[in-house]
Specification:
The structure holds two protein chains of two kinds. By secondary structure, chain A is mostly helical. Chain A has two domains: about 1-50; about 60-275, MetI-like fold (Orthogonal Bundle), CATH 1.10.3720. Chain A is built from ten helices and no strands. Chain A has helices spanning about 5-45, 60-70, 80-110, 110-125, 135-140, 145-170, 175-180, 185-220, 230-240, 240-270. In chain B, helix 2 crosses helix 3 and helix 2 runs parallel beside helix 4. Chain B is α/β, with parallel strands linked by helices. In chain B, a hairpin with a 6-residue loop joins strand 9 and strand 10. Chain B has seven helices and ten strands. Chain B folds into two domains: about 1-80 and about 160-250, 3-Layer(aba) Sandwich (Rossmann fold), CATH 3.40.50.300; about 85-155, no CATH class. The longest helix of chain B is centred in the last third of the chain and has 18 residues, at about 170-185. The chains are: A mainly alpha, B alpha/beta. The interface between A and B is medium-sized, with 21 and 26 residues.
Chain lengths: ~280, ~250
């Protein structure tokens, strides 16, 4: 029996159909997961299954979110203004840390003198948790956007440096020899072999850092903020509006997931060479 | 008799020093490479063969002796020397085409020109259609073909191959041996081929330099005058093979 094109085409169509069904099934499962989470939450609130007071139900959080789109109560800003303020703080700190931290880590990992020069200071500052910097930052930078962005910067900077450093250290000796054999100098080898080899680790660092940036946000916005999701949470807590607190948490969660998704897409593009099929 | 053309290796040695002590990998190796020759360097596993090659190519410093190329002392990298590495030497983040054109890119050759040269060698090693593939999508034999094409693209006068088929399965290995002879006959360059496989050495080489186990010293030199293609089970082939085999140090 021989294969003919018609059968093969039919097989391909079948394969695509099955693949589509499978994708659909998994998307469905993910939605079920979220739905069950919300239902359990709702049941806990409605039937007081856990001894928690003031826990708002998911539907009331949703309605709070919808009202917050236009209402400035209780914190004086609409939801959009808060999101914008938070994004401004976290993104400026995050991007600055990425732009400085990654090259620093790469240079330290490749050029030993730079490593020996920078490492001692870096190792001393590294264990200090980002939040512990708040008092120092208040004194030296103040309490404006710059100050909050500085806190985020510090939380992102460390993982970016460490992962880029480790990533470029893992560059295969053979690949370096290949480049040298073909006449590449040390700096050229660094650019053409070292940096691409380090990219998977660099991305791991950026992904961790993104999580860190978001979780430090609330702490950073404790610095006498007038807007922002962390600030909204603070005010919600102070005036006893649990629904506002949870609405703020939900927004932080959704935005964080969205950013991770965007980063994933970028990673897929840049690390095309690494992904199977 | 001072030879002015080609490569002369004189009393080459390499000792590694560390805080635990020292270790000699290559001791007093001398040989002359004839123009257009297929020279095989045969030695047991981990006998310092790679160190010897790295010194000849110029990516490892020698601690004794000298290397003369065209009558002049050779230090460091020289564009006339190309290398095919053991394995895993392809840039995983570059496509087949980008890997093969790399030597020319590093030399600043224009994109159009280097593409043309690279394409020629990709076709020579039989990989047309895979130009846009990434190394992880290729089989072991195909990866080694890319490595060979890349070395040829650099247009070396002396091509050094460091156990290029060590990682391949037996069938692919036989196929690649014939392939390398075909390319060598088509492109006619001087080759130094390193292996730990006696059969492979006898099948490929015009001359075999047998090294002792660590440190690597020249133990014997065997000219192989058999016509190509050689028959691995012919009486004469087996006789040479046995002679060399009896004289080889066993690597554990």
């Amino acid at each position: 029996m021989s294969l003919n094109e018609k059968d093969l085409k039919k097989g391909l169509a079948e394969f695509k159909e099955n693949k589509r069904k499978e994708t659909l099934k998994y998307v469905f499962l993910s939605f079920i997961g979220i739905a069950i989470f919300l239902i359990v939450w709702k049941l806990i609130v409605d039937f007081k299954l856990l001894n928690v007071r003031n826990l708002p139900a998911p539907d009331s959080v949703l309605s709070t979110l919808i009202t917050k789109v236009s209402s400035k109560n209780p914190d004086g800003n609409t939801l959009g203004a808060n999101i914008l303020a938070s994004l401004q703080v976290s993104m400026s700190g995050f991007l600055l840390a990425v732009v400085i931290g990654i090259p620093l880590g790469l240079f330290m990992g490749w050029f030993t003198p730079i490593d020996k020069f920078v490492s001692p200071v870096f190792e001393l500052l590294r264990p200090v948790p980002p939040i512990a910097w708040i008092p120092v930052v208040v004194v030296f930078v103040g309490i404006d956007l710059k100050a909050k962005a500085t806190i985020i910067f510090l939380s992102v900077f460390v993982p970016c440096v460490i992962n880029s450093y480790a990533g470029i250290k893992l560059t295969k000796r053979t690949l370096i020899n290949v480049a040298k054999t073909f006449g590449a100098g040390n700096f050229e080898t660094f650019i053409k072999v070292g940096i691409p080899s380090a990219m998977p680790m660099v991305f791991t660092g950026v992904r961790n850092a993104l999580g860190g940036a978001w979780s430090t946000l609330v702490a950073a916005e404790m610095l006498a903020a007038k807007a922002g999701l962390g600030y909204m949470l603070q005010v919600g807590r102070n005036v006893g509006r649990a629904d506002v607190v949870v609405a703020g948490m939900a927004t932080i969660g959704v935005l964080g997931a969205l950013m991770a998704l965007i980063l994933n897409l970028i990673e897929k593009r840049i690390l095309k060479w690494k992904l199977d099929s | 008799m001072e030879q002015l053309n080609g490569l002369v290796v004189e009393n080459l040695s390499k000792t590694f020093y560390s805080s635990e002590g020292y270790f000699t990998a290559v001791e007093d190796v001398s040989f002359t490479l004839n123009d257009g020759e297929f020279l095989v360097i045969l030695g047991p596993g981990r006998s310092g063969k790679t160190v010897l090659l790295n010194m000849i190519v110029g990516i490892e410093e020698k601690t004794g002796g000298r290397i003369l190329y065209n009558g002049k002392e050779k230090t460091g990298i020289h564009p006339d020397f190309g290398m095919v590495f053991q394995s895993l030497s392809l840039m995983p983040f570059k496509t087949v085409m980008e890997n093969v054109e790399l030597p020319l890119k590093l030399r600043g050759v224009s994109k159009k020109e280097r593409r043309k040269t690279a394409q020629h060698y990709i076709e020579l090693v039989g990989l047309n259609g895979f130009e846009k593939s990434y190394p992880h999508e290729l089989s072991g034999g195909m990866k080694q073909r890319v490595g060979i094409a890349r070395a040829y693209t650099a247009n070396p006068k002396v091509l050094i191959m460091d156990e290029p088929f060590g990682q391949l399965d037996a069938q692919t290995r036989y196929a690649m041996q014939n392939e390398i002879l075909r390319i060598w006959e088509a492109e006619r360059r001087t080759v130094i081929f390193v292996t730990n496989n006696i059969e492979e050495a006898c099948y490929l080489g015009d001359r075999i330099i047998l090294l002792s186990d660590c440190p690597a010293k020249v133990k014997a030199v065997y000219p192989i005058d058999l016509p190509r293609p050689r028959n691995m089970v012919a009486q004469e082939f087996l006789r040479i093979r046995t002679t060399i085999s009896d004289n080889t140090d066993l690597a554990i």
